[in-house]
């Protein structure tokens, strides 16, 4: 069962961006949170990511957003495509080099609106936000400086990227509103959402190779720890706030493959081939999200083309016993169409919007 408004949301994806350039752009015991190794808190019984369907969706969305940002090590905001009717987005960037290490700092602000109206449907989405980001570049057996613009680290992306490392620290916030009406079926939906994220991310590149088409292929491993807060208010004026700590699971770091044209270095695709993120809500439980070949393609604008994400929801136990697996969700994407299914009920989840992206946010 496809999410009801999938085609509308997917068309709007091209108008609202996510991500930023990557400058082209001990083990836990049973019952412990697998990401932290710390004892699980007792469940609160209120505003639960386990029992509340909207917060379950929010927890799923938080992990997916974090994973996609790992593709670009992003500040989350950038100028979008020409489809935006009003766009007052701004970005500043600077680079300072010292002792063989390059530090890039960025500030971002976004103020964007996109809408359309047809005899059958109407849709409006508005986004405002701001963010700060620092990236510290280093490489074993090599010195990293700044490029001639003074805005980017000078990375030899055609050379050997083995041992290239990046430490990222960020703080950002975003407000988004969306409304949709199906005039033929008499259905409508509206929501307001506020997001904030603060955290760190560590990236290590592997060897660069070429594929059968001669494209450059780079791999990298990403670990992260991010505190995310989501506030949601829907058409029924139901407001809820969700705060989660999202981090990579030990021994299940995100493995990412980037493919670029060998001549122009233009992006072809970025793929999260494997890895697991754990999102924990204190006093309630945690969600493990496992990624299988989640791919973004850039041939005709940025879009999430294919892949699978499985989320397993675990409820904390007050007596310190092993956390209980309560339910799971599965997101499947093929040819740009997507389905988010609650595996417990077998039903599709309609109140879900794929995070958006824009090609320019992954490269200069």
Question: From N to C, what is the helix and strand string?
Answer: HHEEEEEEEEEEEEEEEEEEE
> What's the overall average pLDDT, rounded?
77
End-to-end distance: 38 Å
Low-confidence stretches: 1-46, 74-85
Which structural class do the helices and strands define? mainly beta
**Shape, please?**
globular
Portion of residues within helices = under 10%
Radius of gyration: 20 Å
Count of strand segments: 19
Query: What fraction strand?
Result: over 45%
Largest sheet: 6 strands, antiparallel, barrel
Walk me through this protein's architecture.
- This protein is mainly β and 364 residues long.
- The chain is built from 2 helices and 19 strands.
- The strands form 2 sheets. It has a 6-stranded antiparallel beta barrel with strand order 10-11-14-15-13-12. Strands 5-6 form a two-stranded antiparallel ribbon.
What keywords describe this structure?
364 residues; mainly beta; 6-stranded antiparallel barrel; 2 helices; 51% strand; disordered N terminus
């Amino acid at each position: 069962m496809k999410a009801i408004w999938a085609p509308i949301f997917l068309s709007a994806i091209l108008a609202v961006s996510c991500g930023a350039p990557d400058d082209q752009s001990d083990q836990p015991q049973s019952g412990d949170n697998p990401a932290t190794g710390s004892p699980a808190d007792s469940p609160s019984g209120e505003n639960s990511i386990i029992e509340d369907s909207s917060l379950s969706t929010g927890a799923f969305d938080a992990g997916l957003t974090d994973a996609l940002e790992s593709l670009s090590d992003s500040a989350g905001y950038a100028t979008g495509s020409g489809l935006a009717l009003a766009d007052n987005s701004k970005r500043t960037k600077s680079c300072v080099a010292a002792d063989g290490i390059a530090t890039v700092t960025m500030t971002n602000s976004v103020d964007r609106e996109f809408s359309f109206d047809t005899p059958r449907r109407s849709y409006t989405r508005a986004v405002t936000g701001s963010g700060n980001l620092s990236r510290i570049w280093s490489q074993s057996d090599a010195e990293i400086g700044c490029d001639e613009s003074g805005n980017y680290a000078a990375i030899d992306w055609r050379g050997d990227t083995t041992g290239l490392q990046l430490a990222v620290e960020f703080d950002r916030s975003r407000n988004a509103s969306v409304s949709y009406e199906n005039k033929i079926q008499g259905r409508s939906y509206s929501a307001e959402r506020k997001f904030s994220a603060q955290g760190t991310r560590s990236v290590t590149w592997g060897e660069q190779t070429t594929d059968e088409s001669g494209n450059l292929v780079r791999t990298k491993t990403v670990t992260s720890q991010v505190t995310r807060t989501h506030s949601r208010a829907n058409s029924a004026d139901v407001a809820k706030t969700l705060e989660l700590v999202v981090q990579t699971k030990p021994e299940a770091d995100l493995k990412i493959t980037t493919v670029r044209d060998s001549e122009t270095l233009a992006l072809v695709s970025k793929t999260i081939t494997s890895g697991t993120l754990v999102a924990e809500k204190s006093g309630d439980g945690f969600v493990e999200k496992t990624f299988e070949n989640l791919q973004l393609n850039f041939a005709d604008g940025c879009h999430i083309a294919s892949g699978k994400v499985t989320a397993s929801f675990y409820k904390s136990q007050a007596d310190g016993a092993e956390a209980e697996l309560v339910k799971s969700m599965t997101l499947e994407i093929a040819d740009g169409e997507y389905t988010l299914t609650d595996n417990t009920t077998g039903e599709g989840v309609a109140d879900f919007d794929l995070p958006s992206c824009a090609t320019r946010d992954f490269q200069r």
